What does this fold into?
Amino acid sequence: MTSKINLLIGAAALAALAAPAPTLAQDNQGKLQIKLLGTAVLPDGKISKVRNNAAGVPAGTQSFASDNVVPTLAVEYFFSPNFSVETICCLTAHHINGAGALAGTNLVRTVKILPATVTLKAHMPLGPIKPYVGAGPTYFIFISEKSGTTTTALGLPKNKIDDKVGFALQAGVDVPLGANGFGLSLDAKRYFVRPVAHWSTAGGAELLATRHKLDPWVLSAGVSYRF
It folds into this structure.
């Protein structure tokens, strides 16, 4: 009896090895994957350090950055079935308001951010569902900064936010829709970026500089195509 059971187990194991893995069919569709996503950018924006307070802002001054929803394009290259590298392209606009002692004020009227990001991703197929985790560097490029209505009224019409290197963690899931390369994608990233913002007079004299815990959550959902 025992020998028959062992024989059956051995036969089942050989059959499993001989059968094509269902995840390989999707992996064989191609090395490239394009994703078109809707993305919610949810930054923090707290002041972590006051670098220059010649303007004399009161103790207890704080700030927060506004949220935004933008379209995002992601391009991913698979260099093996379970590992890939991904980069994203998006431009998001925000404003920064005062909190604490400066509640109700506007510090930065608008700033556009280009978050140049590359992540290395590890995929863990679970049947047709493919969860993944990733991590990598980011470089936040700040564009078209405009001083807020409050800081402008206080004689600080110029605003500049330093470009900053940071780090991103990532997790998500891809769900293929049949065998034609199309799929659905859900993605979450947490960025860790601490830029410095500067406010200056019309003549260029800096009177206020603050370091900010930007650290946004970036949540995306959309469609993908692998080829």
